[in-house]
Design a protein that fits this description.
about 200 residues, mainly alpha
Length: about 200
């Protein structure tokens, strides 16, 4: 019982740190709104050469389903990792918020003006990608190899979808995943890869 209470206490503190970090992330985005008058678009050679899809609501539904599946797996099979997971999410959003503040760019060229978006800063919340980055972080934190690979594949498909709908630049998707890899490695959540020469 003592271990259970200790884990709960650690999880609560880590959750508070995570909430504080996500709040700071959104505060930095709001600050950018006050300081920047226009957000320029940048050229993305890949996006210029792939078709445009209009599946915004499907993408948000995919993201929600992903979060629910992950939560079920995590709290059923690896609840002891919860404090480290919350701290990893906190660091992920702190890094993302700093980049979004320092590199405020506009929508990708060709993004439909009526594109579906729940995110409150959809006009400049791009680099690095948050949805695909969080999905990657969650996938990498799973101890079960099959689920980790399955959810990682789903994150890649989602990332490709964000590019096809012009919801993100190619670099956003890649940087979100790199941020997730770095953060999960830092907190010891990702599996260790050993290279042999």
């Amino acid at each position: 019982m003592t271990h259970g209470r200790s884990l709960l206490r650690q999880s609560v503190w880590a959750a508070l740190v995570m909430i504080l970090s996500i709040t700071l992330h959104f505060w930095l985005l709001d600050l950018a709104d006050r300081l920047v008058s226009t957000y320029p678009s940048v050229t993305d050679l890949l996006l210029l050469n792939i078709p445009l899809l209009r599946v915004g609501l499907i993408g948000e539904s995919w993201f929600l389903a992903y979060l629910l599946i992950f939560a079920w797996l995590h709290f059923r099979h690896q609840r002891e990792r919860t404090p480290r997971l919350f701290l990893a999410i906190a660091l992920f959003y702190l890094i993302r918020g700093l980049f979004l503040f320092l590199f405020p760019i506009g929508s990708p060229v060709g993004k439909p003006e009526d594109a579906f978006a729940i995110y409150p800063h959809a006009d400049h919340g791009y680099f690095p990608g948050g949805h695909v980055g969080l999905m990657t972080l969650l996938a990498l934190s799973l101890a079960d190899r099959r689920w980790r690979l399955g959810l990682f594949a789903a994150a890649i498909i989602f990332g490709l979808g964000t590019m096809l709908t012009r919801a993100h630049y190619t670099a956003d998707t890649m940087a979100g995943m790199i941020n997730a890899f770095a953060v999960t490695a830092f907190f010891g959540l990702a599996p260790v890869v050993r290279w042999r020469l």
